[in-house]
Amino acid sequence: MQPLVRTTAWVSGLTLLRREGLWERVRERVPAATSGLFDVQAGDWMPLEPFDDVTEALSGLGGEELVRRLGRLGAHAAVVAPVRLLLKGLGALAVAPHALLSRVDAVTRRQSRGISATYRRIGSRSGEVRLAYAGDRDIPRSRLVGMAGRFEALLELTGAEGGVGEPVVERRGASFRVDWR
Questions:
Q1: How many domains are contained in the chain?
Q2: Per-residue pLDDT tens for 151-168?
Q3: What pLDDT digit, counting tens, does each position of 53-89 carry?
Q4: Alpha helices of 40-158 — where are they, by DSSP H?
Q5: How many CB atoms lie within 10 A of CB 32?
Q6: CATH number of the domain that residue 138 is part of
Q7: Which residues pair with 133 in a beta bridge?
Q8: Which range marks the domain in which residue 102 is found?
Q9: Any long-range contacts for 15-20 (C-beta under 8 Å, 24+ apart)?
Q10: CB 151 within 8 A of CB 164
Q11: What is the DSSP letter of 102?
């Protein structure tokens, strides 16, 4: 099985590219098949390849810093803002980093197929998130850098100050060290 991602994530990503003034510049850099998907607004699931094409184009435009920043912004729109509203509605101020990160697989399964995420507590203020992708192709580093930005956004949601390390790339995935104070 090749990994799939919800089409809503694609549409959300394209909206972010428009908002950041990058839509046309990225569209010019991706393969024609991916460029044709820039007009897609509906559907259930789609393969990862178009996402990888976009992260590679972004990396070419602004390096890993841009990819990571947009990953963080995308997570804010898709996950952080709705969860903050939920927490506020429940009267909770924040959620502990270990508690949130231990549920990363549940979030991943809602948004994708063929991608698994695990969390391992390392210390009282550190842990490791590991992503594994099904299929037989290597995952571009740019995709993993974007995921580091998404994990940064989750850490911000907890209210803890800290950071996410560079992805330690493996054949079909990566691990990310998360530390906070």
A1: 1
A2: 999 898 888 999 999 999
A3: 999 999 999 999 999 999 999 887 777 766 766 666 6
A4: 49-75, 81-90, 97-101, 104-111, 141-157
A5: 6
A6: 3.90.1520.10
A7: 115
A8: 4-180
A9: 15/77, 16/70, 16/73, 16/74, 16/77, 17/54, 17/70, 20/70, 20/73
A10: yes
A11: T
